Amino acid sequence: MNKNYTKGSASQKRPVVYQKTFVMDIPSDTASDLTYFVQQELGYYNMLVEKLTPRLKAHPKDLLNFKDTEKKLWEACAERAVDPQKLIDHPLKEWPVHLHSLHPLVYDYDGNIRISPAHISMIGAAASPARVHASVRKAMANEILNYMISQADTVNSAATTETMRVPVQLLQSYTFDNKRHLQIPFNLLTMKYDEKTGTTHIHTPYSRKPIIVPNVDLTYTKFKLLIVRSPHPTSLNKNWQIDLKDSPLTYIVNLTDYMERKNKKKPPRS
Description:
Number of domains: 2
Distance between the termini: 67 Å
Helix content: 25-40%
Structural class: alpha+beta
Strand order of the largest sheet: 1-7-6-2
Strand content: 5-15%
Radius of gyration: 23 Å
Largest sheet: 4 strands, antiparallel
């Protein structure tokens, strides 16, 4: 038996796929769906970075004092896109029923607010509006928060000892020019192999029609994140690309896309 096939009955044999990057043409309606959500994910990323970075620079201890209760509320507000200040401004009876479970995170048994004003303001960033899948919002918010906390430790140590042993690596905001992809966890995908056409159909939460990957069966391929990369708007190549990632991170904060080089005009001949 060919070593590139898995064991099993004849009807179950599938080629073992080692390739992790695939390029394909995507119909315009599906491309339009995906592009919209690429922009939404980019916007949410930028809002988190732009709202937390000033806090990291000026008040790193606010990040370092983020404990379990604050982190749980951060996750919940990111996932549900709810601003904690709005919860504080209204009594429990006016809260939507699906948010009642957050009450113990906001108030203690005596009805006192558990979270400091500084942290309420920070957590509000996680509630920034963006039409991104709830679990992806949560993953993005968590990974960016964890990154900021790691850098806050560096900033705070430098302020204490007046010596920075390692440089602070700040996250930067991006444009569609250099960050134009979706990061989709495996559990949000449904994949089917069409034996007649030899194509894999990947159904995602971000398009009405599946992403069709030609000439391969990916239904037995193991990975944790699907990266769906949009072509650059000014590129002549309009193909989309998917990458299959095994990252231990639920969202890769430093992942970017190539920037299209501008063609330099040649000077006219004399």
